[in-house]
# Entry
Amino acid sequence: MPDPSYSRILLKLSGESLKGDQDFGIAPPTLQYVASQVHRAWSDGVQIGIVIGGGNIWRGATYEATGMDRSTADYAGMLATIMNAIALQDALEKIGTEVRTQSAIAMPVVAEPYIRRRAMRHMEKGRVVIFAGGTGNPYMSTDTAAALRGLETGVDALLMAKNNVDGVYDADPNHNPNAKKFDHLTHHEALSLRLQALDSTALSLCMDNEMPIAVFNLFVDGNLSKVLSGQNVGTLITASRPAD
# Structure
């Protein structure tokens, strides 16, 4: 890979991206593929933090719709992210990646507690850091956790890895063949258009702090490395449009 455009990044993975062709859970070949893409970027010297969702195991909105208390449903979702984080940690370690998992929910038997300065030190020492448990608070998505952890640890960009969607569209490209893809947007445009690439709280956090966001399809081999080297393989969301 050419010299990376970003030296430290926060990679957001959806939990559902780990289930592969299954209806539920973690598909081992998919987990191994994701780990291989992260390992490649790590081998190129990029400092990496990861936030992972839990939708392959638990979707709080589904249970909330049946009458479950929202906070209870969200806490269960946080536990699902910890399960995914542990699985990803194991897959990364098996291919020689140095990795640490930190949890926003105290669970010292399986993960370190989230401590900002320790996380940054791990990154400086060349370790991938997986941030589990969301923000530790209900009513906050893992997209928001990704934006928050990225800002706290001083990353250069937030990378939103999508599953078989190659960027941000004005409609769902899986259901609308006429959906238009955006190559570049400002944070304000993305908020105004109410796009579904990531939630409005995460977008607002990034906008207020001028954090670039790259949205791309992780399931094209090498795409992560291309994004890191500055190639436009998805949609880039920035504070302002580049000069012509």
